[in-house]
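Hey,
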Amino acid sequence: MSDNVSVAAPRARRPLPPLMAVSDVAAERLRALYSTGQESKLLRISVNTKGCSGLAYDMTWVDGAGPGDEVVSDKGVTVLVDRKASLFLIGTTMDYEVKALSSGFTFVNPNEKGRCGCGESFHV
């Protein structure tokens, strides 16, 4: 006796968006930092509980990737992302801004639902 059982092919999965992208300006600044005082280090990005809105970006220099780090390579530079921060950072673009009185890395994060008034923290 023969059963006519059809097996459906598995659906094609959509590719995941990149964890994080680096703008041209941020890549240029990172190259400059990596070639000077931070030559043997990598920038590690994490998200900590802090500030008025609850979460804040944290950046530290580390010697290399740890077991809980995701390696992001974009535009010829590498940054590390704490795996615990991955869900908060999916699709984020890291940029570098120079203003009249300050300069620094900024994050354009599509997951943010709001920021505190001073801009130091965010919530999702």
